[in-house]
């Protein structure tokens, strides 16, 4: 049995141990804070901690158990939150110098409140690209987050702090956000699970700086933890698909082109484990990617025009010129993109009349080196940021959930995920298929501890 | 759409929006707009194959 205070314990294991008294919430929390103190200087995943508040919550949980109270499904589980989600007592920076010196949030975002009501304990805020505008978590103010599997490489982004904190064993669960792939992409590069839920199923109240298609979602190191977190985080009235996913297929065309052997092999291994034979076309993937990018980029400058006029030098150099360009985009580009998107959503729902869950690559390659302006995919040099999102962006405008599942890499290879994609309300199907991949020994999210992170736990 | 002059567009749009683009940023902003234009060309050219939800008012 896994020591519930160790870095390898899942949220489900920790909560079960806290509920049955095998371990106290305080012991689990102190172990997590010790790991953060030891490993975060190498990873740069957390940008702020809420240790005092976390200790108060741990003591409250332990007292409640001692008094015979029924504890929640995430009792005593430490978690981190992407720095664009309100945590009472912390300034919500969204990774930007523009917000870094603002007042602290006076209340928790709804999703933080829901997790803590279920017994989880927030321990701090996690690094990100400024305002979520990037795929590598290279932040001018807070520094770059490093991939635990290779500290010279990116953790992906923009929820890179979340993915690194999970893969580095700092915490077992985290809250990320995903517009064009910001949960699914870093999950793939760090070898963890990341769910972009059906838009609207998780409250965005308390999310600062996200565009209209940005969605909050759980990231974790097991399929079971994703399932429990989503059930806790989602709104109660959300419709869920019933039954099991029976008809599985792998995406062809666009999703079989322009990917490295690591990505192709990950899809093949997952397809073989699930005995998938059917190949179907995801409708108009290239246009879907273009339209979704236009929609998102049009929305990102909203609320920032005054700052672009008066505080331009405070923006991260990595996002400043892009935000200026986004602010100038013709409205007809946006309106035509939305027009395509409405048609496309209908086509995707028609596709789901023939299949329950679709298997696709998550990223075209493994984690690039930090600072790399270009990456080589299938022998061709491409710009790093947009290229990493080739396979997450076409899905982002569809109103459907997608889950990155980490496929066990060959010895010496970096992590690589695949995406599972379902109709709206199909989060349970995604978790079910991911659990099948775990049970088959194909998917896993091991904690990695490079020599420089070794703290004996 | 192939003769998009991103520099002229940046100058005109920034004036219309009262969003001055510093001279040292103009090149990079224009390059970003050119990349977005490359995405927009195909989206603008697209027509729905049938009459359907695409022509509903935007959400």
What does it look like?
The complex is a heterodimer of chains A (457) and B (59). Chain A has 457 residues and is an alpha+beta fold. Chain A has 14 helices and 17 strands. In chain A, helix 2 packs antiparallel against helix 3, helix 5 packs parallel to helix 6 and helix 7 packs antiparallel against helix 14. The longest helix of chain A has 21 residues. Chain A is globular. Chain A starts with 10 loop residues before the first helix and ends in an 18-residue tail after the last helix. Chain B has 59 residues and is mainly alpha-helical. In chain B, helix 1 packs across helix 2. The longest helix of chain B is centred in the middle third of the chain and has 23 residues. Chain B is elongated. The interface between A and B is medium-sized, with 34 and 33 residues.
């Amino acid at each position: 049995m896994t020591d519930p205070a160790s870095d390898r314990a899942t949220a489900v294991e920790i909560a079960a141990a806290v509920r049955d008294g095998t371990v106290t919430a305080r012991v689990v929390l102190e172990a997590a804070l010790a790991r953060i103190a030891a490993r975060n200087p190498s990873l740069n995943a957390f940008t702020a901690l809420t240790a005092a508040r976390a200790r108060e919550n741990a003591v409250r949980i332990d007292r409640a158990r001692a008094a015979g109270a029924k504890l929640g499904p995430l009792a005593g589980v430490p978690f981190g939150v992407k720095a664009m989600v309100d945590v009472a007592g912390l300034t919500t920076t969204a990774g930007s110098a523009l917000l870094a010196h603002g007042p602290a949030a006076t209340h928790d975002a709804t999703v933080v409140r829901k997790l803590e009501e279920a017994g989880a304990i927030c321990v701090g805020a996690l690094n990100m690209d400024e305002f979520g505008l990037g795929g590598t978590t290279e932040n001018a103010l807070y520094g770059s987050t490093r991939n635990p599997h290779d500290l010279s490489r990116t953790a992906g982004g923009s929820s890179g702090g979340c993915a690194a904190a999970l893969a580095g064993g700092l915490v077992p669960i985290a809250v990320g956000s995903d517009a064009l792939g910001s949960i699914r992409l870093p999950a793939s590069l760090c070898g963890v699970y990341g769910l972009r839920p059906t838009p609207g199923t998780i409250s965005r109240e308390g999310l600062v700086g996200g565009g209209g298609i940005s969605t909050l979602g759980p990231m974790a190191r097991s399929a079971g933890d994703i399932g429990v977190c989503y059930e806790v985080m989602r709104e109660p009235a959300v419709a869920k698909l019933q039954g099991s996913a029976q008809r599985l297929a792998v995406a062809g065309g666009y999703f079989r082109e322009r990917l490295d052997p690591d990505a192709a092999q990950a899809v093949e291994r997952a397809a073989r484990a699930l005995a998938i034979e059917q190949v179907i076309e995801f409708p108009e993937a290239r246009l879907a990617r273009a339209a979704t990018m236009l929609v998102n980029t049009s929305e990102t400058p909203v609320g920032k025009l005054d700052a672009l006029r008066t505080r331009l030098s405070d923006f991260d150099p990595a996002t400043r010129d892009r935000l200026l360009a986004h602010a100038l985009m013709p409205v007809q580009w946006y309106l035509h993109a939305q027009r395509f998107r409405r048609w496309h959503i209908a086509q995707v729902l028609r596709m789901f009349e023939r299949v329950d869950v679709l298997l696709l690559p998550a990223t075209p390659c493994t984690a690039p080196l930090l600072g790399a302006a270009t990456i080589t995919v299938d022998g061709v040099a491409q710009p790093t940021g947009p290229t990493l999102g080739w396979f997450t962006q076409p899905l982002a405008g569809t109103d459907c959930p997608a889950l990155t599942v980490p496929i066990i890499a060959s010895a010496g290879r970096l992590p690589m995920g695949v995406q599972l994609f379902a109709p709206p309300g199909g989060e349970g199907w995604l978790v079910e298929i991911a659990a099948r991949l775990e049970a088959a020994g194909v998917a896993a999210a091991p904690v990695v501890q490079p020599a420089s992170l070794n703290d004996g736990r | 759409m192939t003769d998009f002059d991103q520099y002229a567009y940046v100058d005109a749009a920034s004036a219309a929006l009262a969003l001055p683009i510093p001279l040292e940023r103009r090149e990079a902003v224009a390059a970003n707009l050119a990349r977005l234009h490359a995405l927009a060309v195909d989206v603008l050219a697209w027509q729905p194959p049938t009459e359907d939800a695409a022509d509903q008012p935007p959400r």
